[in-house]
Amino acid sequence: MRLPDYYEFCCRVKIVAGHDALEKIPALLGALHAARPMIITDRGVAGAGLLDVVVGALQDGIVIGAVADEVPSDSDFKVVRRLAKVYQQKDCDAIVAVGGGSVMDTAKGVNILVSEGGDDLMAFTGAGALKKRLKPLVAVPTTAGTGSEVTLVAVIADHEKNLKIPFTSYFLLPDIAVIDSRMTLTLPDVITSQTAMDALCHAVEAYTCLAKNPVSDACALEAISLIAGNLLKVMKTPADRDGRLALATAATLAGMAFSNSMVGMVHTLGHSVGAVCQVPHGTCMAVLLPYGLEYNMHKNGEEAGELLFALAGDAVFARTPRDRRAKQTVASIRALNQDLYEVTGGRHPRCLGEVTGPDGKIRVPRARLPEIARVALGDASIFYNPEALDEDDLLMVLEAAWEGIPLDPARIRKG
Amino acid sequence: MNDFREITPGGRPFTRMYLNVMLWFVGRAVQAAARQDLEVKREFEALPHRFTFALTAAPDGPSMVVGKDETGRVKYLGRRPGDYPLHVRLTLKSMEALFLLFTFRESTATATARDRLYVEGGLPEACAVVRILDIVQVYLLPKPVAKLAIKRYPRWRLKRHTWDRAMVNLRAVIGY
Amino acid sequence: MMTLPDHFEFICPTRTASGLKALEHLPGDLEAMNARKPLIITDKRSTEKGLVDQIAKAFRTSGRTLGVYDGAGPAADMDAVKHLYHLYLDRGFDAILALGRGATVDLAKVVNIAVSGRPEDLARCQGIDGLHHPLNPLAVIPVAGGTARECAGEVAFGDLYYRSRYLMPDLVTIDPRMIIEEDPLQLVPTAVAALTFAVEAYAVPQGNPLVESYAQLTIGFVFDHLLDEVRQTVAQKKWAARLSEGFSLKKGRLALVNAACMAGYVHANTPSGLAARLGLAIGQRSAVDPALAMGIVLPGVMEEQVNRRGWDLSRLLRPMVGLDRFAATPGAQRFAAAMAKIRHLFNELFVLSEAAIPRTLEDAGVTRDALAAVAEAVAGADPESARACRTILEHAFIGQPVAP
Fold first, then answer.
1. Percent above pLDDT 70 for chain C
2. What is the share, in percent, of chain A residues with pLDDT greater than 70?
3. Using CB atoms, which residue from B112, B116, B128 is nearest to A383?
4. Which residues, given as ranges, of chain C have pLDDT below 50?
């Protein structure tokens, strides 16, 4: 057990998980003195029939004040303001957010407006702008990946000014995260692998980057072993309820870990690949994860080696000598990517060069790598990476990840 | 009852003085480096028109403000962040945290990792500010100390390590 | 790999900050909870040892005024609650900093119930889940030692008893400057109580991953540091050792305080275990510290449950020995190895403390006759569990493992 010289940990969210956790929501809201929730979700969730499941689970115990199922994937201030009006008109007293990252962010934004009043979200940006508890917010994640049910950040776009505004406050944490296996049971295979690799990446970076702490370490290891033990199983048997619950729980644990320990260069690069070339976040994470570990290995090889225990199990860990464990960790992640590549018939890419769009064309042209590296320099996750990275370093890593070859140790400049 | 009392803790005049001197010098060194060092110059050029940033300690600890003027010249603007519209504000949670930073017991990366430093404003610009401050620290500090303050000590050409270093320090002292 | 239960829940509303200059974050952290005038509730020892002055120093430059009440005593004192209730309201305090352990923190929590609502709430909100609203901001600043329940959601104050998530502190600030306990044996009961809460949280066939994440930390910190702390301070009283300790942030002590705090979070999320109940019952019927009694019966309790219910609790070994030695130990040996580790811990403490810390109930001076009464008190009317308790106690009397 490592105890850093200083650390902070906070995850105030009540976690309620299980195969029929949704049915607990009315009682949970009752304990928070709420009786008329507004459900916020998106068309995808409604179309997949998940909204009906949630409504079915809720309506026996509680009156649903309103249902808004039109959150777009790039939600913005306008949507937040509109939904806040609906909430007030329908006299709601709590929010149940059902969906992925965009729905959660929107719901957090709506919660600011309906709790604080007014319609000017910008007044609540910046550290310490929120000072008191908001209305009860229940988060029901439908993708086992982002962990936004336990994070204190909401990023909301202002499309008029073409800005993405981050809101950060402990008061933005949902009161309750309800993890129900039914919510991810019908997730398509590629989305399952992308989101699981996103969660894996949260956990691995939380464990190996600068802001690690004992609590996030414990959550991260647990998350990694749940993903390693269940992902391929679920890919082969999508209706595996226990496996789905394990992946969803892992995503929440990983979310708890990284929202306290933050993430490093895999996210630095991944955010930029996503922003410049519109590649799904989970795909970037899956491809780049081995490179983040390789690049930092001279700094955090010990920690990276410990991950082998969670990734490959105690038997492999015991028979791998200490000094080879970190490399074996990287090999296990590459092997997992290879397995996912095979089980999805090549739709889960192993390198950036293999990422294709719906039209079958290459999504990340090699010529754009320098641009990606430049954008990456402006991503705050770079602070938390153990080794320093300048533009040349970022480009070197991107080139290797594009081709899918391991990093050349001689080209890693060690600080 | 004599079990109860109220106390109003005082200030920390000496720490404040030390930090004020340090920030004053670092601020002027940023201004000097922007004129002497190519990399810092380029970083500033890439930043928005009239870009201004502050480094400060909450709630009203010592501060420094640096910004570009109308013509793009980088200037140390003093120690009152309230007087300027800021693009980026780096805030240490307490004066003690700033003191840890300026006694080189914690680097900016460590302070961030330990939740002692928070950033308001544009993140890409904030990243640029941290890169600039890292370079300035290399100019101001002897190598063993600078190694504590940054992640990777840069391999610079001899001229940068000697002539430019001397010039940055000299310019910081005379304020040109 | 663990298998998950079909349903599980967890909550820890507390923010934990631990380590170098943690106290200096307090003004900002209180501000973030909209609190500007905190009242420190503590005892005379904290004032005498300079702890209150340290906190006051950490508030320099914050522009805040602090209230300090250092009259907390070892027993529940309703007059103190009344006095503090009026002080808090009359002088406009808006948060409580509980500095200390055990009864001091309990006093602070009871005062917080009264000032957050109405004084009648003290009578009205007793029992389990009797509180229905968040209370005013409460920060706990632990010192070494205590009950390991300071950070939990439970308060026993004279005849009053409360258990609620709303009693868990909003903030726990662990600072090495507050950890000044000089007698290392004082650390032992706390560490053992924490260990008991954490180990008993594992006593389910399928683990709650959140409970186990915190429980692992408690178990790991106790096994990594308790013996070293006791050994070092008993052996060395030289100035050099003290000086180096001053510089080293007291890492071991800090870890033990962290362990107690995590155990509190675990305690708030799990029902009270058999070892904890047996320990309390033994404490009521003999001179032994109930915390130590819990630890002495702990391995037997786990063995008896594993034998009777056929559970696999081999995962308990992992935090005790670390990943390497856990992986090196074959699965079938792990549970026995874990129980041996707990017994070994007590045997070592027995030697280091020159027999002040008992290994067995016999060492502890419990009489054989008292065992039946303890078993009856804990098991109640259920004959099976009475039999189980008797088996556990008889084995713990002489320190013998409960064989499968």
1. 95
2. 100
3. B112
4. none
Give the model confidence (pLDDT) of C264-317 as tens digits: 999 999 999 999 999 999 999 999 999 999 999 999 999 999 999 999 999 999
The predicted pLDDT at position C204 comes to: 87
Residues 6+ apart with CB under 8 A from C315: C2, C202, C207, C212, C334
Q: What is the 3-state secondary structure (H, E, C) of C250-305?
A: CHHHHHHHHHHHHHHHHHHHCCCCHHHHHHHHHHHHCCCCHHHHHHHHHHHHHHHH
Q: Which superfamily does CATH assign the domain made up of C184-398 to?
A: Dehydroquinate synthase-like - alpha domain (1.20.1090.10)
Q: Out of C32, C213, C323, name the one closest to residue A306 (CB).
A: C323
Strand partners, A297: none
Q: According to the model, what pLDDT value does residue C232 have?
A: 75
What average pLDDT does this structure show over A54-71? 93
Q: Do B113 and A262 touch (CB under 8 A)?
A: yes
User: Nearest CB to B1: which of C65, C66, C83?
Assistant: C83
**A16 has a chain C CB within 8 A of its CB:** yes
Query: What CATH class has C15-178?
Result: alpha beta
Question: Which residues 45-74 of C are in CB contact (within 8 Å) with A?
Answer: none
Average pLDDT of the segment spanning A70-98 = 95
Question: What's the pLDDT band for A144 if we cut at 50, 70, 90?
Answer: confident
All CATH 1.20.1090.10 domain ranges of chain C, comma separated, are 184-398
- Which residues 6+ apart lie within 8 Å of A20 measured at CB? A57, A180, A182, C7
Residue B4 lies in a domain: no
ipTM value, please give it. Answer: 0.95
Which of 212-231 (A) contact C at CB < 8 A?
214-215, 218-219, 222, 225-226, 228-229
Structure tokens at C240: 């050099």
Which backbone phi and psi does C299 adopt, to 5 degrees? -60, -40
Domain count across chain B? 1
Nearest CA of chain A to the CA of B123: how many Å?
6
Domains and CATH numbers, chain A: 14-183 (3.40.50.1970), 189-411 (1.20.1090.10)
Determine the structural domain holding residue B33 and report its residue range: 13-174
A153: chain B residues, CB-CB within 8 Å? none
